[in-house]
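Escalated from tier 1: FE2/S2 (inorganic) cluster holo job.
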Amino acid sequence: MKITFTINNEERSLEVSSHQRLLDIIRKDLGLTAAKEGCGKGECGACTVLFNGEPVASCLVLAPQADGAEILTVEGLLSREGELHPLQQAFLDAGAVQCGFCIPGSIMTGYRLLQDNPEPEREEVCQALAGNICRCTGYQKIVDAIQLAARRMQAGGDSS
Amino acid sequence: MFGFGYGEGFPDHSIASVEPAGEGRILIRTSAADVGQGVQTVAVQIASEVLKLDPEHFEIVEGDTHTTQNAGSSSATRQTYFTGHAVKEAAEDLLGNIYHYASQEFTTNHPEMGTRDGRIFSHVNSDDEMTIWELKDRLANRGIELKGRGTFFPRTYKPDPETGQSEKVYVGYSYHTQVVEVVVDTVTGQVTVEKAYSAIDAGKAINPAGVEGQVEGGTAQGLGMALMEEQIIEEGRTLNPDMSRYLVPTAVDVPEVETVIVENEDTDGPFGAKGIGEPAMIATAPAIINAIYDAIGVRFYQLPVTPEKIKAALEQN
Ligand code: FES
Ligand code: FES
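Tier 2 regenerated the structure:
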């Protein structure tokens, strides 16, 4: 079947079969490889993308369900000039990335958190991140990065 | 204490080379696998320090049997020590060659020249100046390749088959002490690790943020080992082969870690650095188990100490 959806502000139409997952079409058909497949069953958060504004495990969403949806992945966070989003920059500056596998998911979770809660407490960041498993960092610098981005975005008035 | 490197008579080594490439670029060839622990960053920092040249100029040529030589595995907490050492030697070899050939070009003595930010200059004649890359091109015309090569191949000692003793079992030794604060909920058996303090002997922290990252990650893994991670095998089959049944720590389980880096330099490590990957995690489980003992007076000898085990132990007492 043919589906049409918006991804990273671009409208796309694709021929998909009913058994494909949203993660498959994002990674394989569209070549957007930021979202990762960790477990393939909704347990690790590596495949987190925003789906109509909410974080979802894209490995659990069937491709046909994406018809008419609006999807955002890490690739869509870059500014039009190709500059990194404050969250991405903060992850680099805080040293929050080790192997990087969990990072695109954690960034999307952080992005959604800051929309609702522009100055989250440490506890609140940890709660939000509870569905994004990281085996490398112990989460400390990921939490630091999200709080650093929050402070910078508040100071710079950037609420995107 | 943690002994790193393979030791035990194993021919453990790492080979690296450092060479100027196109204008402004220097290639570091090493097959040391970076799985996120940061060995490539460390290699760039070390070469950058030796050659007095900004890190932006460096590129890593990753493991490929056609283009790199053996660096050994990313295991045994050995890459910063082994590959760091090999890269340092390679960069020093390149620096020596730069001095050797540039002094011929300038017809000066070695002490009368210097290099910085990719420029090579004579202290005697200020007209005598060129970049590393110009020198490389001039030498190429003479059929000479400008590069440096370094190997770290320490002697290791087989243990005595009778006693298990050896002169030096491992290649080097790191130390790590950790203190944790835990709360044990005696109703649910749940253990919460509220805070961890670490003092780790990194020899010399080439990248302090990287050292902290390793300690924080190691603490999370040690916490998992102490309190939740348990593979259940029955008749050869794993009954919990997923992350909803084999639990690993999430952001709500881990404590904030305060890390103090102790720099007790190692004579063989690059700039005194030691390996800290595995030592970063080994202190956590014992610290947590001791803290649980301190809190409820029960000693546990089998990991993980799940809420069920705590409850059962409390009911027995
Ligand atoms: S891959 Fe989707 S949650 Fe793990
Ligand atoms: S950085 Fe490796 S899993 Fe998070």
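Chain A has two domains: 2-77, 86-156.
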